[in-house]
Amino acid sequence: MAIHGTMMRFDVAGFHYPEHYLWLSVTVETHSCFLRCTGAVRCRRQVQTLEIRLPSGSVAVEVPPMTYKQVVIRSAGGSDRLEFESLASLPPELEGPTPEGCVDIRVLRSGVNFADTAVRQGLYASAKKYEGVNGTGFPIVPGFEVAGEVVGVGEGVSGRTVGEQVLAVSRFKCYASRLRVASHLVFSIPKGWNLSEAAGLPAAALTAAYALELGDVWPRKDHRDRSKRLLVHSAAGGVGSFLVQLAKAQGHFVVGIVGRQSKRELVQSFNADVVIHKEGNPKWKAEAVEAAGAPLVPGERSGYDAIFDANGVSTLSWSFENLGPCGRLVVYGFHSMLPKSGSVWASRSCCSVLYWLYLAYNYLRTPAFNPLDMTASNRSVMAFNLSFLFDFEVHKFVARFENILKLANEGKLKTPPVRVFPAPEARSAHDVLESGNSVGKLVLEFE
Ligand SMILES: NC(=O)c1ccc[n+]([C@@H]2O[C@H](COP(=O)([O-])OP(=O)(O)OC[C@H]3O[C@@H](n4cnc5c(N)ncnc54)[C@H](OP(=O)(O)O)[C@@H]3O)[C@@H](O)[C@H]2O)c1
Questions:
Q1: Which CATH number among 3.40.50.2300, 3.40.50.720, 3.10.20.310, 3.40.50.1370 corresponds to the domain 206-387?
Q2: Which of 24, 200, 274, 328 would give a disulfide with 441, using CB separation of 3.0 to 4.6 Å?
Q3: pLDDT in tens, 279-322
Q4: What residue range is the signal peptide (predicted)?
Q5: Closest by CA position to 356, among listed 136, 76, 126, 72
Q6: Left (φ > 0), alpha (ψ -120 to 50) or beta: where does 280 sit?
Q7: Cβ(238) – ligand 1 distance below 6 Å
């Protein structure tokens, strides 16, 4: 690279499009000035070098060859169905200039969620509805969240600039090195959060916020309201970490339940009032009942104002039984319906009889709640899946996330621990998440 004048640093990020567009993001830093510019250049053929003229002379830069990386799933199965691919060009839907109202992001980190493992197993209804062919949900590039660098801004988008680091939410397509997304789903990274932490924020925190809304505990309408008694299952996980913190930020009394004893410390660090572990602790249920405290009205039943349960079959009935008057059971997942990775029931091919027996048995055991009981005991069951709500009341979705970002920027929301896996090792990330032993968030790194 020829360097003229007082130039200190010169970076070019170049991407070839099949129609010979080269999208440029150029950063020039000299002793006296800093310049960042972007643009699309039409080239007759793929170029390997590019000459850029500057007032101080000219510089020839090597254009890095275009590579697009993705983790794709072509059929249902175990973690071996995650295929990492490196392609020489972008898929057609990402080609060309950024469309109106959209932002193009060079993805550097992509969050891994438990839901992605259900997508991979062909058990995720919204994947079947929105992705793949013939209602199968395959092929699919999974993933709901990214952090990266803006490389293109469409007409009509304000407040976003090329080169800026952002986080974004998308219904699928996030396990890839490039994402094109509507601008209202792109947000600034909270102060002091790194890219990996940012990529792990939106899906889990938005799920937690919506669950708390259904539990009638967030945002608190009136600070004179009494603080409520809440119980959070899997409190050291991605969603669990944010449920505990958001509930504590509202001043509620929070009991966190975790599987392994080793997960307790993390939930304590989020200021949960009581933390109870299940493995090797046959008294965990009794401890959780006791933690709810005395009845609010003498003679009335004791119990929690809201219980947040994504376990499914293993705890749903118990959770419902332990609601107090007007209590709400918020159901948002069913992970205990699936075998843990490494267990005899889990199969890498997902075709084994044992796997299907396990699933069918747990499906049949999943409780149904009787409206007559609910009415008589003033207890309710609320349930949701955010991926069906993407296009629904977008302004509420954005407002909810802005509340979360505000707390993060004020230092009132801590990032849970984040474990980073290189994108080609996506299979290991799924294996770890399905083992039931992970804490916090898991993230894939794209170069
Ligand atoms: N409805 C929605 O819109 C929505 C959105 C996002 C996530 N979710 C759901 O929320 C739950 C949490 O998601 P996440 O991504 O934050 O995962 P996570 O909580 O970080 O990880 C899963 C945790 O669940 C527990 N677990 C219990 N049975 C398990 C099993 N058979 N296999 C694996 N883990 C098991 C384990 O914790 P303990 O042993 O400590 O309990 C494990 O660490 C999932 O069920 C997910 O599907 C729902």
A1: 3.40.50.720
A2: 200
A3: 999 999 999 999 999 888 888 888 999 999 999 999 999 999 99
A4: none
A5: 76
A6: left
A7: yes
